[in-house]
Fold:
Amino acid sequence: MTVETRAPVTLNVRGVSMRFGGVQALEDVSFEARSGEVLGIMGPNGAGKTTLFNVISGLQYPTTGSVLLDDVLLTGRSVDRVAALGVTRTFQTPIMFWGLSVQESVCVALTAREFGRAYPPRPDRALVPSGLGLPARRRDDAALRARADALLERAGMTHMGRRPTESLAFGEERLLELTRALAVDPRVLLLDEPLSGLNPDEIAEVLRLIAGARADGIAVLLVEHAVGELLSIADRVVVLDYGRTIAEGAPAEVAANPAVIDAYIGDELE
Amino acid sequence: MAALWQYILGGVVDGAIFALVAAGFVLIYQVTGIINLAQGEFVMIGGMTAASLTAGGMPLIPAAAIAVVVSAAAGALAYLLAIRPARNATPLTLLFITLGVDVALRGLALFVWGTNPYSLAPFSSGNAIVLFGGALPPQALWVLGTDVLVFGALYVFLRRTTMGTAVRAAVANPPIASTFGIPLRTFAFASFVVAAAIGGLGGVVVTPIPGVEYDAGLTYGLAGFVAAVLGGLDSLPGALVGGFTLGIVEHVAAGLLSPGWDQGIAFFILLLVLVVRPQGLFGRAARRA
Structure:
């Protein structure tokens, strides 16, 4: 498998605040995430972690502040445009494309990756050749399916390729969701509680895939309530509480921070 | 019995064109969630363009190709000028916008072609085809062949190509598809263009049978809409079955009862299906708004 060498990128979250009516979900949150690192994001329920992911991925626009990928402003762009620029995400509950097989689901992500390379896509370059079944496009399709099979093999899901997504167990859905996200070849990957609901074997598999993503030069932002696993894989950690950053640093430093223990870790370990 | 069979054969021909119009409704609804009430006008534009070009001396094949392109362009313009600027509007508002597009296209057709009916020579000569005592005009085979071609191509595209798979993913869950970078707006644009081209092609192949005039789109649009709802607005096989069911029921009702009863019976069956199975014969329940 060929691994493309890409210039490292920095995701820059600058002074992001988000207010829903009287609720301040995020307040002046700032941090950076760089290629090839796992940035853990911790905090109790309601701390603003998912809202932060929504803002970064373009699902919601912040009240104030901005998000940049290197010098490119992401804030204000549509979700598909943010994704085309290299930022993709997963959700707390894995969401499948019903009616598609496991292999087809990965193919969707690989097709989206093609779109991302020439955004907005021109129908004459993609849809029309595919619609007319041109030989070159058929060869591209075959290559895409082979690539999807390789990614499924990497995730230990080779035998599931033909299964409809409706038939997957929860842990299998999680693995497919992560494989699908990696197939887009993102530069920044936002993972929202990818370990929740998994058994120990599945947790080990997901952690292995996250480590692989880091080794491939992806900036991984990891929201996770499993504190031990998060601290074990994260290179740096940001801790949110009531929408504000209360700590940032190396996992060991953060774990020993009294404010963090008071707000979050103490409760989690109990 | 021979008369009944003849009614059924007549219904099959009408059903084939209703199915094509219904396919346009379904394509646009699946990809955008919009019910495009202007779909019948693309049939009229295809038929009128081909008929007027051949009347001017152009051979059939280039005239037919131009007619399909003109219909597709009408679909593209309808999307770019009317739908896209209002894409964040409510479904009801978008429905009314498509009604406005329908009226505008009909008015434009009246301006360009006037009120005179146009006709197109059958694509192949020969006597009527006798089938179990009933007769079909040779042109009917062109209409049925177009159905096979269009539905077959749609099936292959959606089920056998990765791009078609991406379209199915966008249909299954638009917000999630967009987080991968699937461009929903491009797909919406393409759905209007393809649906209009299908309508235009249908107009070209069916015009040799009944002829065409500027307001023919209203009838095709209404029949196609009923067929699409009957089959299930989110199901291409449903469009096929709904189209043929509607065509046959209309013809049999008109033949056995009275010519005035055809649409009344068709709408009664539609109401019956909607009461018993609101999502249509092949549709899925509880889709997105």
Q: What stands out?
A: The mean pLDDT of chain A is 88. The domain at 77-191 of chain A is CATH 3.40.50.300 (Rossmann fold).
